[in-house]
Each structure stands twice: as structure tokens, then as C-alpha cells.
Structure prediction request, 236 residues.
Amino acid sequence: MWPDHYINIKLNNIMCAKIEHHTQNITYDGLLQGNRDWVTATLAEDPTFFDRLSAGQKPPILWIGCSDSRVPANQITNTRPGDIFVHRNIANVIVHTDMNMLSVLDYAVNVLEVEHVLVVGHYGCGGVNAAMGSKQFGIIDNWLTNIRDVYRLHNDELDVLTDEKQRFDRLVELNVIEGVSNLTKTSIVQNRWANGKKLGIHGWVYSLETGLIKDLEVSASSNENISRVFKMNDGQ
Ligand SMILES: [Zn+2]
Prediction:
């Protein structure tokens, strides 16, 4: 999602023109009207919708994705309010000092008892792109340094890719793969598995160009493959 003019360079012009035209029609009052229209349409289709949802939530999925406005969890998976618990940040970075992410993860895993955690990146991610360059954008550069660490870890694989788009796409994927790995290093996930609970951690990448999600097939569902250095036990 960062920054718009930067990402626009990477997208085809027709698509950008459509996006700009669309966003120009969004106004403050229009959002409130849109909300009223949505309530009317939702009740027409399902009169008990709000009664049901207001009673509580039990989503089976936690989604950790990018803040990018073009990657909304519900729409692109054809799901509805109540289906997915969502955490988003710029470039779907997963670091162990992020209290926001850790709180969401702990609540989702131990209170909501989600069965799947999805780390969802997207090709064309402005945050990942910015991390590939040397231009400063402000405080966000510090956040994106986490992605530079991903690059450093996979330097050999990335540097041989001479095609810049290929290298960009692969870093998007590796950022997701490292995100999945970072989740498995948390005491939250490891304890859940140690207690015999079902929990799958998965890595996905969404294509802005096709609308399709690619499963990177890096799913983890037990403590088995965690390297010794990162393995913890709860003292029992
Ligand atoms: Zn992004």
C-alpha cells in the first residue's frame, strides 16, 4: 500500500486509471450512506443477520495480511462478517516485538480457538518494493527493515534473479514464508501445538492482476519441524 505513486509504476495504466476514477467517488457522507444501503440490502437478504452476529463471534480463521486497500480478506475469499478475524499491517510483517500482532495472535488462538492462521502477502506490495530500494520514505523505513532482513537471509537466491519483477515477486513470497516461520517461533503457537490442539499456519500470496490466491505450500501444523534453537517448552 505504500506509497501509491510508487506502486502505480508497477501496475498497468488501465488498471490504475480505473482505481483512481473509483476512489474519486468516495466521499465522507457517501460512506455513511453506503452503510445504510448495506444494512438495508443485508436485512432484505437475511433478516436475522445482525441478531446472529451481535450474539458473538467464532471465526475459524485468523488472517494476517497487508494494509493495502486492494486486499480485503472477506471479499477476496468470498466470506462474510464473522468468518475471519483480521490483523493487517504494512507488508504483512511478522516480528516478535509487535505487541499488537502478538495480542491478536494470542486472542485468536487461545480465546477464539481459530484452527487456521493465514499469512497473506500480495504481489505488487508497495512496502516490499520500498524495502528493495534505497529511497527513504520516513518512519516506515524502520518497519520495512524487517523485510530487508528477509532479503539478507535469502540474498543468494534473490541476487541471481536478474529480472526485477521476478526478484520482487520472490521477495513477496519469501516475506510470507518468513512470516509463517516467525509465527511458529512464538510461545503462543508452540504451546497450542504442545497441548495437542489443531492449528495450521499457512502462507498465501494474492495477485492483484488476476484476483487469485496462491498457496505457497509452507503450511505448519506441529512443533516437529521447528529448529532446535527456536524450540521452547512450557516447563512441564
Ligand atoms: Zn502490501
